Amino acid sequence: MNHVPGISVITATKNRLKLLCEAMDSVQRQTFNAWEHVVIDDGSDDGTAEEVARRAAVDARIRYVQRTGERSGANVCRNIGVRECRAELIIFLDSDDLLRPRCLERRVEIMQRNSILDFSVFRAGVFEKSVGDRTRLYHSQNPGDDLLRFLAHECVWEISGPVWRRSFLEEIGCFDETLLSMQDLEMHVRALSARAKYVCFPDVDHDIRGHDDATKTSVRHYKDPVYIEAAERVRAKLFDTVTSRGLLTWSRQRALLGLSFGSAECWVEARRLGRAMRSWNRGCGRQQAPVYLQITGLLMLCVARASARKDGVCSRLVNKWKGWARFRQEPSLLEQAE
What we know:
Blueprint: E1 7-13, H1 17-28, E2 35-41, H2 48-58, E3 62-66, H3 74-84, E4 89-92, E5 98-99, H4 103-113, E6 119-127, E7 136-137, H5 146-151, E8 162-165, H6 166-172, H7 183-193, E9 198-209, H8 217-223, H9 225-244, H10 250-269, H11 273-286, H12 291-306, H13 313-324, E10 334-335
Parallel strand pairs: 1-2, 1-4, 2-3, 6-9
Antiparallel strand pairs: 4-8, 5-9, 6-8, 7-10
């Protein structure tokens, strides 16, 4: 195949053969045909290589890439995908998620018509077993300061939401391969801090699988001590990114303090109050938080540790304090029909 595709779909995967097949099927059902699907395998042993090779043998738009080298993980694989792909437009499709049939057609049309855009964003539906079994949207697309909302850990958009111009991805450095979790949030903050030109569209053109999997990184970074510690470093990096660009407003600083308190709460959940307090003190020092806020935060961590039930009086007190401190909380998924 000698022609350059109009858009590249990049999927990092490891031992998710059944789900990967569904994701690949959704790409092959696209109304836009000039695509390539680059599947980067992070070391699967479940038949992924054989299945992707079988598909590639009958559809030259599919390419299989085996990750090599000592470094592994989704970030590494996605960066490999960016280097391997040939199109100027790129989307990242997680191996457990799905594209709707007109997704690529609409995204290519928007980006070709608006050459000034670095990326554009589309909305996602949520499903559990089959598309349509839930009526939720993954994010609400409320108007406002998207950088602030990311710093407040709101779900502004997820990894499959944007279509990127490859040159912009390369300019900001793609994914940070040293991160264990929160990698898409960190990259999105970096993109916005670079003052990217982008537009968000209300179209729902892809679907996120809402299954509860305790092994997922997005779950582990709240509960696994290794991931909690790694997430602290991500939050420090977010602060450095925003500060270095001269974008640290009062509201954004409070949102970052809220992230620091969130890390401390995770340590409390892990029954490590001393570590929680050190984490909070470190965050307050880095961000020059007012002394009264630092002291009351330490008190709230003690209250949180004493709380036996999440819906108890102590938990409500901590939540009220976070509201008083102006830490914005991550909203629930927006429940509405498409």
